[in-house]
Amino acid sequence: MENLQQIADELKNFTGKVRGEAFRTRLEYIRKKEGEEGVKSLQKKMNDLGVDIDLEKISRDAWMNEGINSLSVVVAKEIFNWSEEDVFNLGRFAFKTSFLTKTVLKYFVSMEKALLVADKYWKKYYDFGELKLAEFNKKEKYAVVRKKGYETHPLLCIQHIGYITAGAELLLRNDNIFVEETKCIHKGDEYHEYKISWN
Questions:
Q1: pLDDT in tens, 44-59
Q2: How confident is the model at residue 110 (pLDDT cuts 50, 70, 90)?
Q3: What are the C-alpha distances in Å from 36 to residues 21, 40, 56, 142?
Q4: Is residue 170 within 8 Å of 114, Cβ to Cβ?
Q5: Domains present along the chain, CATH in parentheses
């Protein structure tokens, strides 16, 4: 079991920001999976950890601390006894329900084109880091993307795999997608790297 207070103290000092949209989709997932009592439990635990924010009042367009946003995933996994699959599904849900993502992706007809401008849209969500296409191999059916400058908590890697999986499924119109994190900052690498494969 992780020391939540220690993690909270570290993440509260994170300086990068994310749009409230990212948090609102997470709250919707918790409400759907755990009900209204689940939302109240998350609010109470976050307050107990020294996060003095009314979670229900976070605006979709507002900038919020990404450390606190990440902390909510760690707390939810702990208090709801979620598996890694639940966290993966949170990422999938976030992609499918995010207004910004749905708005952006309707302009793209291929995954390669979407990945080529991924960093532009990353910067609509985050005020730090970058997300760039490193390789796209249409013949061998795989792509590699790199996420740099993002280091909050390892649990977010799993959520991001779910998010990328849902995006690839939509863009490729293919449910047979496999996403693997091949490099990770939390394992000593310089950046996160994700390989997306499809049949």
A1: 999 999 999 999 999 9
A2: confident
A3: 19, 6, 11, 40
A4: no
A5: 4-94 (no CATH), 107-198 (3.90.1520.10)
